[in-house]
Design a protein that fits this description.
It is a single chain. The chain is an alpha+beta fold. The chain has a domain of about 210 residues. The protein has 6 helices and 11 strands. The longest helix has 19 residues. The N and C termini lie far apart (about 95 Å).
Length: about 300
């Protein structure tokens, strides 16, 4: 009995199917069928090497700097097996050279098994040592307008229907953790200034969906946070703004438990001695049911120690 090798068997199959031309070479070299898979595996493996990650970091920084026309810096980017993304030292300047955003260590842990089911599962997202300043100039423009102009794109024509890019894909969130976050809001037109110093925040998400937008927060813990608000004395002429619709009207946000610790709120009127000081040592809210779209809230338990 004559034995037929692997290449001979493959050749017989190709002849039976009637495949000719370039396909016939695969009949004699069946291992070529494995080449695309091996190249993909090699490409993925290279992304875990620090030199390759540094190369990607440089390309991303160069693209963002050129796209926005302002300096962008990123000190470090790392991809850790299986799918943990770590960024550190992101700095974005506004169009006048001032710091718009600085972010310290950022980490996102991706559930790789969920990707097989067309789902992006972020098991944990954490950010620490970040600061952001949003400023409105006297001409009513904002210091982030250049980003909107760079990435906003063009609105589709009325005859062109909008393309749904989220169909068939689901985003799941697990735990969000923030530490030592500073946020400043400076509105020159109205003379209002707000400063938020967030110490610790941890939110455990039970349900998260994009269409429709629905968020159910199992537990929300906020600690060591101060909010300072300064408002002008008297009534200024309100700047002209276009008529806007409420973007949060159809967003359903619900929670089960909110815990607060060492929360301070300060409000002062500029140029006067009028001020308001509120301090909360500890407090928590346990909800029986919530529905923000219907503006309904039923509490099971509420506690506060001022």
């Amino acid at each position: 009995m004559r034995s037929v090798g692997q290449g001979g068997v493959t050749a017989q199959v190709f002849n039976a199917l009637g495949w000719q031309g370039p396909f016939r070479c695969l009949a004699h070299y069946p291992t070529l069928l494995l080449v695309p898979g091996l190249l993909l595996f090699l490409l993925i493996a290279l992304l875990y090497l620090p030199p390759v990650q540094d190369l990607v970091r440089g390309k991303v920084v160069a693209f963002l700097s050129e796209k926005t026309g302002t300096p962008v810096a990123l000190a470090r980017i790392r991809l850790v097996f299986p799918l943990d993304l770590k960024l550190e030292g992101l700095h974005v300047a506004d169009d006048r050279g001032d710091t718009l955003l600085y972010a310290g260590p950022f980490q996102a842990s991706v559930g790789w098994r969920a990707l097989m089911g067309s789902r992006l599962r972020l098991n944990r997202v954490s950010l620490s040592d970040a600061r952001c300043t949003l400023r409105q100039y006297p001409d009513s423009s904002f210091n982030f307008d250049f980003i909107v102009e760079a990435f906003g794109g063009k609105e589709p024509k009325p005859s062109e229907p909008a393309v749904d890019t989220t169909s068939g894909f689901q985003l799941d969130l697990g735990t969000i953790s923030l530490e030592r976050i500073r946020f400043n809001l400076d509105l020159h037109s109205s003379g209002t200034f707000m400063q938020v110093a967030l110490g610790e925040l941890e939110a455990r998400i039970d349900t998260f969906s994009l269409d429709p937008v629905r968020v159910i927060i199992d537990a929300f813990d906020l600690r060591h946070t101060t909010v300072a608000l300064r408002i002008p004395n008297g009534v200024k002429e309100a700047p002209a703004y276009p008529t806007l619709t409420n973007p949060l009207a159809d967003i359903d946000v619900r929670f089960n438990l909110i815990a607060l610790e060492n929360i301070d709120f300060h409000m002062a009127t500029i140029g006067t001695s009028d001020s308001l000081w509120l301090s909360l040592m500890r407090g928590h809210l346990a909800a029986r049911s919530t529905n923000t779209t219907e503006q309904q809230l039923a509490l099971k338990e509420a506690y506060a120690s001022a």
